Amino acid sequence: xxxxxxxxxxxxxxxxxxxxxxxxxxxxxxxxxxxxxxxxxxxxxxxxxxxxxxxxxxxxxxxxxxxxxxxxxxxxxxxxxxxxxxxxxxxxxxxxxxxxxxxxxxxxxxxxxxxxxxxxxxxxxxxxxxxxxxxxxxxxxxxxxxxxxxxxxxxxxxxxxxxxxxxxxxxxxxxxxxxxxxxxxxxxxxxxxxxxxxxxxxxxxxxxxxxxxxxxxxxxxxxxxxxxxxxxxxxxxxxxxxxxxxxxxxxxxxxxxxxxxxxxxxxxxxxxxxxxxxxxxxxxxxxxxxxxxxxxxxxxxxxxxxxxx
Length: 309
Description:
Layout: H1 9-18, H2 32-43, H3 45-48, E1 57-60, H4 61-66, H5 70-78, H6 85-102, H7 109-121, H8 127-133, H9 136-156, E2 167-168, E3 172-176, E4 181-185, E5 189-191, E6 202-207, H10 213-231, E7 237-242, E8 247-252, H11 255-277
Parallel strand pairs: 1-4, 6-7
Antiparallel strand pairs: 2-5, 3-4, 5-6, 7-8
Helix pairs in contact: 2-10, 2-11, 6-7, 6-9, 7-9, 10-11
């Protein structure tokens, strides 16, 4: 178990309030997952009609996020994948935290990030070539940022015993309509495992930077839905944890939360299928100005953005 005497105040607060160590867990509801699966199939029956017979609709959590704006979603569909410093920084940090948990925080943080760098360099998708193209100062800055995130995680999260079965980036995948529609997401951290009697899972996403409350809560509800469909047992809680603040936004999971996630996902799948397989004229795009514009390749010609003087 965790040595409470060795925990700092933030770690104690996470144990008491976020993980709710020692508190009773809600009972499992065996019929809930089947009920949600049937409902999701019903709500997406028209989606599969838009997909060509030899194709499928694959929607990740990132793609669902992009659906806040049709232009951003189409940009992700049409633009080739490219590495960029924010993506490298996040990948290094998350891999570093994964290695840190596996090594029970016994290794120097610099060594953990160096290992994460090597893992990324050999992961494919052109990562090795991109990392090799970085100048020394830029590469060092990315390593330093990732190291800070690993140390922040160490300072804030208590040690997680093996008995709690912590896992990082555990894939959650669900297929609809015989594999014609595929949903996938990977929460940063899963604590606890599904059991037949009680709902013991906690799903956490780790964030640096500012809050986006509506989007982040929708992300976690999606993970809750996918975990329920995958395991047949819902998590008891989901949370977005903000490392820069040592604070979090948590939501206890019940059927109303899962039903809200289901309706949201069904609507987004319908829009995704239209944009991918039956794309309307761009004059009919629903364009939304927001932080996503900074990453969108269509921003320079987007009619929703004010023209430069």
